[in-house]
Design brief:
It is a single chain. The chain is of the alpha/beta class. The chain folds into 2 domains: 4-206, Rossmann fold; 214-482, 3-Layer(aba) Sandwich (UDP-N-acetylmuramoyl-L-alanine:D-glutamate ligase). It is built from 19 helices and 18 strands. The chain has helices spanning 9-21, 26-44, 58-72, 88-96, 129-138, 180-183, 187-191, 246-257, 272-276, 290-296, 313-323, 334-337, 343-347, 360-366, 370-373, 377-388, 423-436, 441-459, 468-482; strands at residues 4-5, 50-54, 77-81, 101-103, 113-117, 145-148, 171-175, 193-197, 208-210, 234-238, 262-267, 283-286, 302-305, 328-331, 355-356, 391-394, 400-402, 408-410. The strands form 2 sheets. Strands 1-9-18-17-16-15-14-13-10-11-12 form an 11-stranded mixed sheet, with helices on both faces. Strands 4-3-2-5-6-7-8 form a 7-stranded parallel sheet, covered by helices on one side. Helix 3 (58-72) links the parallel strand 2 and strand 3. Helix 3 runs parallel beside helix 4, helix 10 packs parallel to helix 11 and helix 18 (441-459) packs across helix 19. The longest helix has 19 residues, at 26-44. The two termini are 20 Å apart.
């Protein structure tokens, strides 16, 4: 699977072992890691008093290398150690450090910068004592903390703090690949900016990737000189009743803006007038029964149902009717909730081209207990995708996209400005449109999620869902310029 791999702690350890077995000494890897951290610090900060907190393992060994290299560049540095080194490589690194060394918390003065090299991603127990105290204090000065690999106390595989104390950092430097804890909350927030440094390991493959354009940009459906509207995808959106029509229009406008050639709202008769009054390039057709809906959807590429559709039998029957067509389905909002009493009825109608877009509450209605029982959101989304036999977008600050075959992507560009009514309807429109244009459903979901967040960040404060479709051209223009870069 293309894209930037995300490796578990175990997978990363295997990559390290592979390099060592291939002839690279462990201490050489430590030297490269420490140099990468020192370089990242010097790129971001001017020389200042710096405390490097070194634990007893290899993370601490990286810290000793950082301390030595910063001192060689003229930085005022001291090491605060948590016990003596316990690995050969860390011991060698400590021996080469000839500067001031004190016990943890006994620094000669208050540091302007702290380098957390206590434990990294592999810690399997809570921080205690002086380490816990310093970790708690780091939240108030996170912009002055640099973490090596992972803020100590944060689990690399889940992003969850071990116990009630874990570090906060403004910059985290990790090696070779990110870990789940770098992209899952609350770990993502505790890491600050994450730099992934190349230390010369062989490329790694993973079923889990970071959701960035390099994972799907090659498949993005740009028009050509020969393109026409019928070739650019036919998308339908099912409207709610007359007093609940805005959500469908948001989805439809989003679908049109991100590239679908023909977008049609299929509307109950009593909602025709209100929809017609607000539509221009989006077309409008009436339907009364699920049979009529099935007939109207017979020749389309993708269909969106759920935004303000109503949690009622009509919506349930309409979903099942659409599932009998050849259209790929995007099931959102009310069309998810309506199956809460019998999720298997929905699952039996879906296939791998369909996409479910639940937020955590809706996820619980379809997959009760799965999120609470999973170690993290990636495992939960994967289990749900297998169960539904469809692509699942588990929405949130750390949105995860999962395919039934085990592929998953973790989104790391989440925007706080998306916490506004209607933003999910716009996302559904993006997903449906990209599928209608010919993208494979998993890639379409990944692209839609990333573009959704980028558009929100372009606007920033004051964003409403109505703003999002109009921001998409700026994101697409940048992607279009990057497609051959």
């Amino acid at each position: 699977m293309s894209g930037r791999p995300i490796l578990t702690v175990k997978e990363m350890a295997a990559a390290d072992r592979g390099a060592i077995e291939a002839g690279t000494p462990a201490f050489e890897l430590m030297q490269r890691a420490g140099a990468a951290v020192a370089d990242a610090i010097c790129e971001r900060f001017t020389p200042r008093s710096t405390a490097v907190l070194c634990g007893p393992g290899d993370n601490g060994g990286d810290g000793y290398v950082v301390a030595r290299l910063l001192a060689e560049r003229g930085w005022p540095v001291w090491v605060e150690r948590l016990g003596p080194p316990k690995s050969d490589s860390a011991g060698q690194a400590a021996t080469l450090w000839t500067g001031e060394t004190v016990e943890l918390g006994r620094g000669p003065r208050t540091a302007d910068l702290t380098v957390d090299a206590l434990f990294g991603a592999g810690l399997d127990r809570p921080l205690t004592g002086e380490a816990a105290r310093i970790a708690r204090a780091s939240e108030a000065r996170a912009d002055q903390v640099v973490a090596i690999d992972m803020p100590s106390g944060v689990a690399g595989d889940t992003g969850q703090p071990k116990g009630d104390a874990a570090f906060w950092a403004g910059l985290t430097v990790t090696f070779h690949a990110k870990k789940p804890g770098h992209v899952l909350e609350p770990g993502q927030s505790r890491c600050g900016d994450v730099v992934v440094a190349d230390i010369g390991l062989a490329p790694s493959q993973s079923q889990l990737i970071e959701n960035t354009p390099e994972a799907w940009l090659a498949a993005f459906p740009w028009p050509t000189h020969q393109s026409h509207k019928h070739a650019r995808g036919r998308l339908i959106v099912v409207s709610g009743e007359a007093w609940n029509t805005g959500a469908a229009r948001l989805a439809a406008r989003a679908g049109l803006r991100i590239g679908a050639g023909l977008v049609t709202i299929l509307s109950p008769p009593d909602a025709l007038a209100v929809n017609a009054a607000h539509l221009e390039a989006v077309m409008l057709k009436p339907f009364e029964t699920e049979i009529e809906l099935e007939q109207l959807a017979a020749q389309v590429d993708a269909a969106i149902i759920g935004p303000a559709a109503g949690v009622n039998e009509t919506t349930l029957l309409n979903v099942l009717a659409l599932a009998r067509t050849g259209a790929a389905l995007v099931i959102d909002a009310d069309a998810i909730t309506v199956f809460r009493d019998d999720p298997e009825e929905l699952f039996s109608a879906l296939d791998v081209d369909d996409v479910l877009t639940p937020h955590p509450g809706e996820f619980e209605r379809l997959f009760p207990g799965v999120l609470a029982e999973a170690p993290e959101r990636i495992s939960a989304a994967r289990k749900a995708a297998r169960k539904a036999d469809a692509v699942v977008i588990l929405k949130g600050a750390d949105t995860v996209i999962a395919h039934p075959d085990g592929r998953a992507a973790a989104n790391s560009n989440g925007s706080p400005w998306l916490a506004t009514a209607g933003s999910g309807d716009v996302l559904a429109g993006f997903v449906g449109s990209l599928i209608a244009q010919g993208m494979e459903s998993f890639e379409a979901a990944c692209a839609a999620v990333w573009i959704h967040s980028e558009a929100a960040d372009l606007h920033g404060p004051g964003l409403t869902a109505e703003d999002l479709p109009g921001l998409v051209p700026m994101v697409l223009r940048r992607l279009y310029a990057e497609r051959t870069a």
